[in-house]
Give the backbone structure.
Amino acid sequence: MYPNSIEKLIECFRKLPSVGRKTAERYAMALVEMNKDEAREFAQAVLEVTDKIKYCSICGHLTEKELCSICEDENRDHNTICVVQNPKDVLAIERIGLYKGVYHVLHGAISTTRGILPEDINIESLLKRINDDTKEIILATNSTIEGDTTALYLSKILKNYPHVFVTRLASGLPTGGNLDYVDDVTLIRALQGRIKQ
Ligand SMILES: [Zn+2]
């Protein structure tokens, strides 16, 4: 058993994704071995992130300001909206540098098994964004049961906006794969070959 303060740190690290007891212990011990300045910088960075980072008031992506850099960018096509589950997915699509539209981050997906309903994710704000100029909505939720359920739900609702062209990323994405794990070539193909819903 470690001293209490170290145990507490280990518990903190265990809250991170894919960190088990052993890894958490390693991280905690690395912190113990840091000098005071390094440790302070580490702690400060954690605090700063929770203080500064918020969600863009239009699309829900991460930002330190009212709007994210993508929503603020006048050179982007604001009439094409790519709907994703998480901020990480925005970064994955941005990485391939092909997409010039804007995004909408749902912050989750509909899940019958986990009891996540349409009203629990950012769908209402998506519908509010749609106006007469909206051209296309690309459903880029993950190719998992939850992602597919969400895409199906959205494509039904979006039928109420007949002027909007609704597409889904082409298949070819590995089933069960999260968007941010897909390699660039597959993602480019999926985006270019998107299918009308
Ligand atoms: Zn935004």
